[in-house]
Amino acid sequence: MILVFEDERDLKYIKPEKSRICLSTAHYKDGNHSLCWDFQEGGKLDFSVPVDYKPVSFSGHDSRCSVFGVYIYSEDKTPRTLHFRFFRKGKEQCGFDANISYTGWRSIFVKFDGDMAGAPCEDMDSLTISVSGLPGRLYLDQLVPASLMDPRSPVASQQVPFVQSPKKPQFTHYTLMKQIPKTSGKRIQDKDRICKIYEETILHNYGSMAKGVEEINSYYNDIGIVETSEGICGKPVEYFWQKEIYQTQSYPIPHSPLRLKEYVEILFSTACAYHSTKEDRFGDIYINMLRHLMDQGLQAGSSLGVLHQADYSLRMLYPSIFLMREAIDRAGLMDEVISMIKWFTEFGLIFVTENTHELVTADTLNNFSQGYFVCVLLCDDQAYLWALITWINKHLRPTAGLSGLIKEDGSIYHHCNHYTLYGMDGLAGIMPVIYVLSAAGIHIEQDAWESLSKVLLCMRFYANKYDLPIAMCGRHPNGKWQINRRMFRYWALAALERGDSLPVSVYKRLWDKSQAQEADLPLFLSDIPQEKSLEGQLTMNYACAAFHRWNDVLVSVKGFSKYLWGNETYMANNLYGRHMAYSHLEIIKDSLKESGFRTEGLDWAALPGTTAIHFPVENMRSLVYNLDDKSGFEEMLLSDQPFAGGVDNGKTGMFAMVISGHPKYDGSHFAVTSKYFVDGFVLCLGSDIQNDEERYPTYTTMFQKAGESTLKDGVIKDCMGNLYYPKPGQKIDVKQGVQTSKDQTGKGENSGFYSIAYIDHGIAPKGDCYEYGIGLLGREKLQYSILQQDRTAHIVQFGNTTYYAIFESESFKGGKWLSKTDNMLLLMVQEEEGLLKCWACQPDLGLYDHDPSQYDETGARKEVSVYSRQWIYNPVKRHNINLTIAGREINFNAKGGQIIYFTVNL
């Protein structure tokens, strides 16, 4: 039930004491009316309404909790306290108090369990709202007695500071405000120059995103902002996730409010129009819209009901405020605006000295970093500026475990895994700030710069030329994602200021002179040469991925482990992509589309390079649950195997993993796999393939492309011109035709023409194996020798280089060069004139040994939320490795996933 106070029917539920109530059009959050409550001292409203409270379910399928919600408007800042009490048959069960000392709208969302005093129970049948303080008037709208919500959504505010966040209970918007010190009184040196550069950067960087004058005027007229004796009023503005409290109420909002994100975009567009036209009317429009937005609740201390993801809607607000700073100051709003920025950006974070890596994510850099910069410049405090620079340095350095943001191998993290899309957005947010500071002669520290640069250098290696492999795109495998040009531009511009030529060279290769824009001119006027085409091998073990470049072709392989999830799936994203990391191999030349990738008709159970049970598409759809209060409705399945990773020497390399399915879908599925990348040739091996699935066959898919293929003399050619050399004697199927599939969002069926080739391991295989090679763009088959291929080890020799994947060291009997190891191992040994060059890696990240919470009472593995794991912030384990190579005992100490180089004299 929801009381929206649009007609007299809602008043029948309310009994006022020492109060007068009526419907009013003076202020409203929904429709055109709200409840106007005039009260005397001790005023009270009794609501005879069912309170549909439900205890939190611990089933592991739905962990939403019951939340009370209401919007309250105050016309003055007179301090008052509201007392909310909930009853069952006249007996008080639970309640809470709220502070009222503000002007404008505030939304109050409070969880029954954990936030309220008392013991809530089912069948509560009434609630009361009473007031302590001077007589006055308040307005109420959209009162929700109880509704199920994500427990992470309600957040503490100045009205209800006791609301607990399960995600970061120690640091909330409310507590972080207390971390902000008073200004030092020392003004920022060279502030005017910094402001000038930043203003130019905003207009260059985001100016193209601004709406036109006609759209601004139309939108502004639609708001209908008016000034009355009771204050400012206009069409309601609502943050998208505020509707979450209605989701279990089946409540259709009769009048659609303005969406906060679109409102902010118009604010930014208005600021740009003001700068380009110099017309005062745009200044007036901006100030009126800003005042209306603040009246709608965008003020310091407000929670907007929920703040989960609100930063995405607000990120363009802060640059707009900077552009309009003089007009805001003239309007007398500057102090309120600065306080608002500090609140909504969690500005106190930059002053927290203890470890904040679990709090600072790619989202923080994306959505808050420019808000921080704007706040620093508006406050004009040198101590604030140095605190921000220290914060940037700190969070661009590699972090421990699965915490954000950057790892030593160039991986960029979000959601406890390498996540290019979020990482790009994060760096796109922070890079303009780094550039502006560099242009003003203030540089981040060298180790932070090198860490940042490594991420971008890796990213330009695993994109071709702009397109990202779909396995690098998390829950968005739609083939539409490319590297972010703005991010690379401001990296290169900052590098130019530092005297670092490589980022400029990279930028010139990616976007040549014919694509130059005005903001690129300093780069193309430099005499730094363009980077050459990329060649070689890159291993990123924190991403559980490896990449090979040859003749402008990119080959990528993606795995998963007991630490790094294999798929991220939401209720409407990546619903069929749970094989995305089953040693998934992608080949890209120029772009995904030109390389034969489409989502229309894609067989999600047969992704290239994977060894998996070939479920029908309807069986591939994920069953997405809300497992606990640390996560939402999402699926991020873990393996139970630690072996997944690669090793390389910069030119060639290998990637190997043990595939172990999850009991939720394919718990009996197991395979040992390895892939070798040598000068445009890829060798793929598998062994000990087994499962108990008796309904559907198991395939190793060589390729699946939207185009024609040919088969001649046992060699298959795909639509790119890649040649596939399967070992004779295997059951090979090559098909082409129209396939029907499901859209990854779950919104419908689609179809497309495909050719597909796979090795059929049959129903419920027991110890099967496979072997095939890939010659990129028609590359001839290279000569190689397979020295061992079983569950213990895969050992392959190409020329003078021998590759070892030792899965079970205790069973390893020894081979050429390597005769003994006391640990799982990835090893390359290259023989050169009496010398063995060796590259070794222990792939086990070792974040934990055993996590009993991942198993039920019978010992069976169960689905858990990665976010609730206690081990995700543990440092990567260091391993002592003892080897015997060519009769020499070698020992070294290295972190899991780290590649170690050494030599052995023959």
Number of helices, counting only DSSP H or I runs of 4 residues or more: 19
Q: So what's the oligomer here?
A: single chain
What is the general shape?
globular
- Derived structural class: alpha+beta
| Helical amount | 10-25%
Strand content: 25-35%
* pLDDT averaged residue by residue: 94
Spatial separation of the terminal alpha carbons? 81 Å
User: How many strands?
Assistant: 42
Residue windows where pLDDT falls under 50 for at least 5 positions: none
Radius of gyration: 30 Å
Summarize the main sheet. 9 strands, antiparallel
SSE blueprint:
Elements: E1 14-24, E2 34-47, E3 65-74, E4 80-88, E5 91-100, E6 104-111, H1 112-115, E7 117-118, E8 126-132, E9 136-149, H2 173-177, H3 191-206, H4 213-223, E10 226-228, E11 231-233, E12 237-238, E13 258-259, H5 260-277, H6 280-295, H7 310-314, H8 317-323, H9 325-330, H10 334-344, H11 362-367, H12 369-379, H13 382-395, E14 413-414, E15 417-418, H14 420-439, H15 446-461, H16 485-498, H17 502-510, H18 521-524, E16 536-540, E17 545-550, E18 553-558, E19 569-570, E20 584-589, E21 611-613, H19 617-620, E22 634-635, E23 644-648, E24 653-660, E25 670-678, E26 681-690, E27 697-705, E28 710-712, E29 715-717, E30 723-726, E31 732-742, E32 749-763, E33 766-775, E34 785-789, E35 793-798, E36 801-806, E37 818-821, E38 825-832, E39 835-841, E40 878-885, E41 888-895, E42 899-905
Parallel strand pairs: 12-13
Antiparallel strand pairs: 1-2, 2-8, 2-9, 3-6, 3-9, 4-5, 4-8, 5-7, 10-11, 14-15, 16-17, 17-18, 18-20, 19-22, 21-27, 23-24, 24-25, 25-26, 26-33, 27-32, 28-29, 29-30, 30-33, 31-32, 34-35, 35-36, 36-38, 37-40, 38-39, 39-42, 40-41
